[in-house]
Amino acid sequence: MLDSRQLRPWLRAALHEDLGRGDVTSSLLPPGKRIHATVIAKAPGIVAGIPVAALTFQTLDRAIHITPAARDGAKVHPGQALLQLDGSARTILAAERTALNLLGHLSGIATLTRQYVDLVPKTVKILDTRKTTAGLRALEKYAVAAGGGKNHRFGLYDAVLIKTNHLKLLRRGPGGSGQAGAIRAAIANARRAHPRLQLGIEVTTFTELQAALAAKPDLILLDNWPLTMMRTGVRVRGKARRPLLEASGGVTLATVAAIAHTGVDRISVGRLTHSAPALDVSLQVQ
Q1: 138, CA 20 to 30 Å: which among 157, 214, 218, 235?
Q2: Which structural domains are found in the chain, ordered by start?
Q3: What is the model's pLDDT at position 205?
Q4: Which residue of the set 163, 168, 216, 241 is catalytic?
Q5: Packing angle between helix 178-193 and helix 164-172, nearest 10 degrees?
Q6: What H or E segment, with its residue span, contains residue 222?
Q7: What is the mean pLDDT of residues 209-213?
Q8: Which of 8, 42, 130, 131 is catalytic?
Q9: pTM confidence score
Q10: pLDDT tens digits for 135-149?
Q11: Is residue 131 flagged as an active site residue?
Q12: How confident is the model at residue 175 (pLDDT cuts 50, 70, 90)?
């Protein structure tokens, strides 16, 4: 869910980055010149960020009249209208690049996410990660959801995920008793400290997997496991489907279907946000 009250200060800063002391080129236009313009898709994809683009224009000039012509999450084709704008030529052109950059970036994330989602059974969830652009996490995760994906934890504060580096340090600490002991202790301590948060743990071997299963976290992360290991891990977990098993690490469009068919419940894909190519969008003045 997008919150315009939180977005407006960020959008003002983004617009200022581009405008600086003012749009010297658009200042050459007559002050009262009004235009009708259309934002269109120039490539097929899944659109995301229509409200963000609209708010970008209206953050610069509240008098710009905007009519959305598409909904976030919808498939679009080349030439399809996404937004209709009426207002001052100076301000529409001044906000154009910032609005289109955001719309293209978010639509690119949604488009790539939908490609992943379409390759796996509906029982397997495609999730994003924290590999997001600084300051854009909320928008990028919104775009993942628009593309049919699911959001992982938002940050370090809303879920516990005990990873390999945590376990290394816990194993070396006072009372450490090897990796299996560290796993059991870490899960028990996390349950006591954060009983209301989802609790996940990353494992690298079958021994660690068995220790984690016995300690009953909510989620076990199989990071960079080969397919054969994943299949065996799913069999070891059993039919109860608890804890959830999540595959991660280097997942691509070429590998995601095979990973899904190992029987894991979730697949997290960092490239949804850190490597999605932007959808080509354009503003045309009529």
Answers
A1: 218
A2: 4-114+277-285 (3.90.1170.20), 117-274 (3.20.20.70)
A3: 92
A4: 163
A5: 100
A6: strand 219-223
A7: 94
A8: 131
A9: 0.94
A10: 999 999 999 999 999
A11: yes
A12: very low
